[in-house]
Specification:
metal-binding; Type III pantothenate kinase; 5-stranded mixed beta sheet; alpha/beta; 7 helices; kinase
Length: 258
């Protein structure tokens, strides 16, 4: 079985692929101090609870936090007796190389989303990922990542507002009943929600102008559903896009000649 690991700035997601389906998905807080032994104890416990049969024989890792990769490599080597494939490293080949400025390092999560988005939705797409940062990944007609946009994530914006303005409380993001708030919490929720609706609309509009062609918009990430309700922002919401991309990259690299 294949273990796909997607390590973001806030959370790390583990999914098990049995060759046909993802049979389990778990999430934990990202912590660069967590050891390989701790990962294994937690994972083995989760596998027992969900009665996952079979052994992990392959591991692929995408991480936007470089400091966690070492212990995830140790986890793979020590407990699963395999060398993990790490997205963004030279040994992990891509079906189509990114077309960006020379010397630019593209985040592994963006590479994975590009591969998955192209496989499921074709080329000329924009993948909007609502994570710690809100990213827009532009995928060309041949499946190449050709650039994008990075904006502060929704929860990051809320935390910054709370931390920098002593009188403002921390609130959960939700769709407000109306734009004009009549109390502090409603005002903050309205500003964040409608602000991000406007952000997505404006960025996508500008990308379409620059590309001068139809561009489908695919949303993923934890808050994708919130911003898709009742609006025509996205052509599709794809919650497991990143895991699908990790599986595709693992298969692609296995099929390459040594």
């Amino acid at each position: 079985m294949l273990l796909c690991i997607d390590c973001g700035n806030t959370n790390t997601v583990f999914s098990v692929w049995d060759g046909t389906d993802f049979v389990a998905t778990w999430r934990m807080e990202t912590n660069h101090q967590r050891t390989a032994d701790e990962y294994f104890l937690w994972l083995s416990g989760m596998m027992r609870v969900q009665e996952i049969a079979g052994e992990i024989t392959e591991v692929i890792i995408s991480s936007t936090v470089p400091r966690v990769v070492f212990n995830l490599r140790v986890l793979s080597n020590r407990y699963f007796n395999c060398r993990p494939l790490v997205v963004g490293k030279p040994e992990c080949r891509l079906p189509v190389e990114p077309r960006v400025d020379p010397g630019t390092t593209v985040g592994p999560d963006r590479l994975v989303n590009t591969v998955a988005g192209y496989d499921r939705h074709g080329g000329d797409i924009v993948v909007v990922d609502f994570g710690t940062a809100t990213t827009f990944d532009v995928v060309a007609s041949d499946g190449a990542y050709i650039g994008g946009v990075i904006a502060p994530g929704v929860n990051l914006s809320l935390e910054a507002l709370h931390a920098s303005a002593a009188a403002l409380p921390h609130v959960d993001v939700t769709m407000p009943e109306k734009a004009i708030g009549t109390n502090t919490v409603a005002c903050i929720q309205s500003g964040v929600f409608w602000g991000y609706i406007g952000l997505v609309e404006g960025v996508v509009r500008q990308i379409r102008l620059e590309r001068d062609r139809p561009m489908k918009v695919i949303a993923t990430g934890g808050l994708a559903e919130l911003f898709s309700q009742g609006f025509d922002l996205f052509d599709s919401v794809d919650y497991d896009l990143t895991m699908h991309g990790l599986r595709l990259l693992n298969d692609y690299n296995k099929d390459l000649p040594a």
